[in-house]
# Entry
Amino acid sequence: MIKFILTILLFCTNILYATTIVVDDTTEELEILSSSQIYIDTTKKLTIDDITSKDIKFQDNDKKLLSYGYSPDFDVWVKFTVKNNSDKAIHKILEYGNPLSTYVDLFDHSSDTVYSDGLGNINQNRKSINPIFSINLSPNESKIYYLKASSHITTLIIKLKIWKQPDFYNHELKHQAILFLFFGAMAILVIYNLFIYIFSRDISYLWYVLYILGVIVHQMMYTGVSYIYLLADTYISSIINLSVVIVAFPILMLGLFIKNFLQIRQYYILNRILTIYLCIFPFLILIFILTDEFNKYRNIFTVILLLYLVALTIYLSYKRNREAYFILFGWIVVSIAGILMYLSSIGVFNIYHYSPYIVEIAFITEAVIFAIALSDKINTLQKEKINANEELVVQKLTENERLELQVQEKTKDLKLSLEEKTLLLQELNHRVKNNMQMIVSLIRLQTNDIDDKKVQALFLTTQNRLNAMSELHELLYQKEDISYINAYEYFTTLIEGIQDTYTLNIDINYTIDTDLQTEQAVSCGIILNELVTNCLKYAFNDDTQKDKYIDIFLTKFEDKYTLIVKDNGVGYDQEKIKKSFGLILVTTLVESKLDGSIDMDTNYGVETTIIWREEDEEN
# Structure
């Protein structure tokens, strides 16, 4: 009988202390949620008085983490009892392991004290990432606590731990250091790729930088860092209302990055769909900001865009797009992290127990993979550039060889053609000279049968004129370069023929320091023939005169020729002989053929000065 009574008492004691959390001064870290009781308030109207006064049935809980997903329609009450099992007063810290719950209230039933925290009411003195509360127990004291948690922003996740104060702050310091290392690494990626964008002007890098910045902002909000260190209380509520933008912005930038980086424009239909969706995406997000009616589905369009990008990446990987392999690998890493986070949020598998920084690891891994992808693209483009340059060099060498062969062939053909034309021209000049000589011979024979002195003089003048042209063709026949003629050789040969005709003892002096263009040499020969013939015929009729001479000057200064024919004869009256055919011929040739000027001085003998310009070779 006594044994039965002891068994009953022990059973009742176990029931009484089944939910009691025993701590003492040596307790460093203790998870308490699995030793607590839970009640779901679907009315969201119950107060602490209602909870303690009414017959509220709490349910026992054995889970270390409770996750309810997005749950804006109910409050979760947690009841737990803490007992100080020592003879010393103890001071512990209760950590609520989620910085994003909107409201977290802790009620001390023994003193009717309430402590509030959460995004909607952040404790100004708190420097920890997660909400914390003080647990103070006298020696051997037990206290019943009630914790109410609600969230209308993100998923409602509840995790409770009691810490020894030094251990908590060491843990918190380590936790924040790891988070800041993550943000520092992401910031380095931002700066590095921003500089690459500035120097390369590849728009893919800009979208990538904005994507990383969006991830940084999102994680600062998600981990609670921004609420403690960056945002003032007055701005927190406004930022919370823009949570849909904070989630959507990095995904939008990611879409633009993938569109440019994977060159989606190659696939017309896929590119069209993505372009249209990216254009209307900001307006869809704006609709959710302006209305609360579909708040439960506020991230639906972001999820659709994300799923389309994943499907697009898988398709391009199937099409053997090299860059798509990197993006797909990044997607796989993030997807695995996302699945594990979802399993944790529904309470199936607590990944945070094994890897509390799974989100940060996934994001930093994805960012590094994308950075490697960008670097690989640069290397690929560099290799393509090198190959293109090598092909261009080879093509240039081949083209140079081909052009050189063509030039050699053309040059050879031109030389042959030039030689043929030179020979033909020389032969032409030779034939012209022979024909003129034949005409001169016929005139000479005809002159012998004429008794009239005037007629003989006319025939003789004609003969000399033909000789002037004939001698020029003789010189051209003998020269290889026919563009210029040796003026001294031409003039001396011409005048020697005239002297033989008149057999006069007259000195001919030459001062010639230039050559003549072939076209102008013809006119100069005829002009010189006329002037010298006039000198021989009319200038030296005085038999008593001694030292008879004719001076011939031909000079060139810059592009002007000057021809002077001067004698020391008796001169003549210009008025009497100005209608002479020979002078008319000379004047006509100077003005029309040479485009020059002529001047005659008859004061002391006759001095004729002719000036003209050298013809432009292009003309």
About this structure: Residues 178-383 form one domain. The longest strand covers residues 75-84. Residues 95 and 132 are 5 Å apart (CA to CA).
